[in-house]
Amino acid sequence: MAKAHPKPINLALQGGGSHGAFAWGVLDRLLAKDEVTINAVTATSAGAMNAAVLAYGLHLGGHEAAREKLEEFWKKVSEVRADFGWTPANLLEAIPGFRRASQTLNYFFLQTLQHSLSPYQVNPFDYNPLKDVLTDVVDFEELKKCEATKLFITATNVRSGTARVFRTEEICAEHIMASAALPNLYQAVEIDGEAYWDGGYMGNPSLWPLFYQTEVQDLLIVHLNPIVRKDIPKLSGEIANRMNEISFNSSLLKELRAIAFVQKLLRDDWLKDDFKDRLSNIHVHSIRAETTFRDMSLASKYDTAWSFLTDLKQRGIEEADAWIDTHGEAIGKRSTVDLHGDFLDGETILKAQ
Question: Confidence class of residue 343 from pLDDT cuts 50, 70 and 90?
Fold first, then answer.
């Protein structure tokens, strides 16, 4: 039997700090076999870092080079300990429950600083070790030449409050850092005279560039922020975590609502013939975050211990493997999510839990 040709897909990668290692696992599984080709990636924050490393690896040597580059990137992240943690790794492994305590302690320390001082006071020289990691792993001048996949990286313009999407041919390390610049942690990143914060506020990630600048109909969203939580948060940390999730999902849900509206226009034949060819019926797919991150706090997004990152990677591999087994045959044919039932209709969503 002849081997089936890989199916083209577009990817949307959310931001979420070190939880981006889950998306690393998803990408590793997609790259490990030849079921799909990655036509374009839209991404924000940690997703933008994954996307840049992915594209650079694909440019250098295809799927295997991309897998190697992603491994190199996350290994360097763990070595830097960008969460400012001071807990010895052996204690994290040896004492049950110590990891969560360490995450909470580190997060409490950061929160105390954030509530007292701005990033301009705490870090006046704007040192960010993640930028050094990125430039060690990715040659951005070479990345600009990438034709293996298209990149769309979102950042938030501080003055206008609007999304700015940067494309492959212009992307450098500053664009990635702008997309990941949480304003309570990092100074705004200045690019061409404008200041930018984390892209998650206005697009986590932005989906619309895929509709205007690619012809591939299949979109796979890799979530890092749970849409649904069954329990009502009552502790201050739980409340902050849920507020963060809702905030960073809001822009994505708005774009999914727009896709659902276009699907209805096409399905119910509401468009004049002159306009039908101008709209594309997007096939939406989704690898959700609810199961993986159900018991993880906001503090865990700052944990860069290698054992934690590789655990998230393995969970991502398993989720991607299950998704391909269940839905892989639908690529190129139909959506595998019900936008209203899975994302937009609150009563339906809660009944399904």
Answer: confident
